[in-house]
Amino acid sequence: MAPPKSRGAICSGFELCTGMGVMLAQVTNYATNKIKGGWGWRISLAMAALPASILTIGAIFIPETPNSLIQRNSDHLKVKMMLQRTRGTDDVQAELDDLIKASEVSKTITHNPFGKIMQKKYRPQLVMAIVLPFFQQMTGINAIIFYAPVLFRAIGLGESASLMSAIATGIVGSVANFISMLIVDKHGRRVLLLTGGIQMLISHVVVGGILAAELKDHGGMSKGYCIVVLVLICVYVAGYWWSWGPLGWLIPSEIFALEIRSAGQSISVAVRFLLIFAVAQTSLSMLCHFKSGIFFFFGGWVAVISGFVYLFLPETKGIPMEQMEKVWREHWFWKRFTGEE
């Protein structure tokens, strides 16, 4: 439903809310940790029911999209009125015509989106549906977010200080995500991904170097080095939240043709949550065994990821979703696949 010129900012709002939710969860953990008797964690866990309830109730009020209305009935006047209301202008006929054309094309194709996306001409979209969510997790963000208090305690901060440090990274992430919303439709997706990648890579390497040199096996560092590490992790978090954080969701949501959109989005989300599960199950063991090496591990992945973005990810800024196929036809590498009918 978002217009192409502001699609990035609007879609990034989803990840901003996610980041704010993470921050509020960290504040809740900090507050309940102060409860005597050791049962505060029960309150922290039960509080998760509140946003879940809001999501469930809110789902009742989610409106249909223009594409969905066109696919399910022929009341184009209703769609036009919806576009006029959401765009704030009466001049929506060109966009409506594009939506209708895309819908008609998709209806001429056998309704098997998962079989369709396996065809050669959709190879770019299939690759992106898999590698973008994979790369998003391999930046190391969830390893940092899930186990930030454990990490901060490992470098010598107390329990309360560790939880407060996790709150600080949450605030930094929310602010960085908001900045991303302001500039993503002006500077484009690639610029943010590449600058964020450089920022994360430097942070990973420097933090890993400091921990390797100072932490060793005695489980603590001087206060000065603890502050430096905390600042660098905040720099890393900022780099992630104005690049891969929101854009890891935004780009897969805008690159699929209508006839494969359901399959592409399903694959993308499935890969993402499979990786989140894997990271959650392995990161603590990796932190214990690799120690400082975990930052070099994820830093190496960030270097690979940034190289992939530079070479293979085209810019999608401002392009209507119904015309996104031209992005692949004009790309130096992917055009060899999109010519096949």
**Helix/strand order, N-terminal first:** HHHHHHHHHHHHHHHHH
* Alpha-beta content class: mainly alpha
Question: In one word, what is the shape?
Answer: globular
Low-confidence stretches: none
Strand percent estimate: under 5%
Compute the number of strand runs.
0
What share of residues is helical? over 70%
Q: Calculate the mean pLDDT score and round it.
A: 86
Gyration radius, in Å: 22 Å
Quickly count the helices: 17
Q: What does this 3D model show about the protein?
A:
By secondary structure, the protein is mainly α. 75% of the residues lie in helices and 0% in strands. Helix 8 runs parallel beside helix 14, helix 10 packs parallel to helix 12 and helix 11 runs antiparallel to helix 12. The longest helix is centred in the C-terminal third of the chain and has 30 residues. The protein is globular and about 65 Å long. 35% of the residues are buried.
